[in-house]
Amino acid sequence: MDTRFHRMANRPGVQRPNGAAQGKICQFKLVLLGESAVGKSSLVLRFVKGQFHEYQESTIGAAFLTQTVCLDDTTVKFEIWDTAGQERYHSLAPMYYRGAQAAIVVYDITNQDTFGRAKTWVKELQRQASPSIVIALAGNKADLANKRVVEKEEAQTYAEDNGLLFMETSAKTAVNVNDIFLAIAKKLPKSEQATGGAGTSGQGRRLVESEGSAQKGPGSSCCK
Prior knowledge:
Belongs to the small GTPase superfamily. Rab family. The chain is of the alpha/beta class.
């Protein structure tokens, strides 16, 4: 099993350096929340491994993964907790978003109920998570736009009213998947989470290389 992809029952693996890191390194905890089957695990799998599985098993409890992106001379390492969407696991959610610097709340653009549930998650984060948490709203399954029931404008307005980042994404086609994580990385306070001695994973380097200049945010601050 890849050490970057562990079920909750297993102890998360330690990411080993594959060479010297470029510039400073910032490490952040990020949690994904949303109703079951909206595509949370698929988004993470696409971001971390560049893969998509048509039939993804439901997450039990939570899954832990890591991935890095590069902003100018700063490497941002995400420690990602992909939580289960089933109602019976809701009581466990605070364990994962407690201390998180970022969250992605995911809904399915073809399912109105999942958008309503996403709003509930946003309220819970605003009430119980860190006051400085960066929250992104992801309208997933953008590849199924012909079956859309949640209008993009409605979600955009809601996100703006609540100070959220917003993008419609598709884990299947990879549309905006890297972009939403990159947008979060740009918004996080780089001066607070500097860590030394860690390396960039091979997958992280491939992501940076494949994205090229898109990974370099103009005016991004580095860790001090």
